[in-house]
Design brief:
By secondary structure, this protein is an alpha+beta fold. It has one domain. About 15% of the residues lie in helices and about 55% in strands. It is built from 3 helices and 15 strands. The longest helix has 18 residues.
């Protein structure tokens, strides 16, 4: 498990294209946003321990909620929908192992509760292999997130940007090759 401190507005990248952003911190309540470009609209999730064996799982924005025989299923509201504007959502108490289905291909479950810290698992066809995030007690202006994503790399957003940027050496090398090829095509020998 990788443990990272994050402040509101800071993100974690889970390869290949999942972004988890701390949206807000208040008291013991942490809101995180999960997004995957082109796969599903941003999902906002919060989990708060309500008893030693239950956590309140909140999911927004939702446009519909279905309860049937122990299953809870929500449909997320697309950007610009009325449910998004009013931040309509679901708040349901779940025991470890109980999940909420989000659309057809995503689910969120309370994985465990340890020392007052809820751990959530996200999974489904939309995101590939399941991964877990433990919301470790918020401390002032940041929260510790424990991320367990088997078979995936996890980065702080600022490190991800560095990893994705081309290196200075490769940029200079490409510039020199381009300059040499331009000299050669102009009929002059590189000197």
């Amino acid at each position: 498990m990788l443990v990272l401190n994050r402040r509101p507005g800071e993100s974690i990248i889970i390869e290949p294209d999942l972004r988890m952003t701390v949206l807000s911190l208040a008291d013991r309540r942490v809101w995180i946003g999960l997004s995957a470009p082109g796969a599903f609209p941003e999902l906002r999730v919060s989990a708060t321990v309500v008893s030693p064996g239950e956590a309140r799982l909140e999911i927004v924005p939702t446009s519909s909620i279905v309860f049937e025989e122990g299953r809870v299923r929500v449909t997320t509201a697309p950007e610009g929908a009325p449910a998004t504007a009013v931040r309509a959502g679901l708040a349901v108490d779940r025991k470890p192992g109980e999940s909420v289905e989000v659309g057809d291909d995503l689910w969120v479950a309370v994985a465990s509760i340890s020392k007052g810290n809820p751990s959530l698992t996200f999974g489904g066809k939309t995101i590939g292999d399941a991964f877990s995030v433990t919301l470790i007690r918020p401390a002032g202006s940041y929260v510790r997130l424990g991320v367990d994503a088997p078979n995936r790399r996890v980065y702080r957003e600022e490190l991800w940007e560095v990893v994705q940027a081309p290196t200075v050496g490769s940029l200079l090398g490409n510039a020199r090759v381009t300059a040499l090829s331009e000299d050669t095509t102009a009929g002059s020998a590189p000197g």
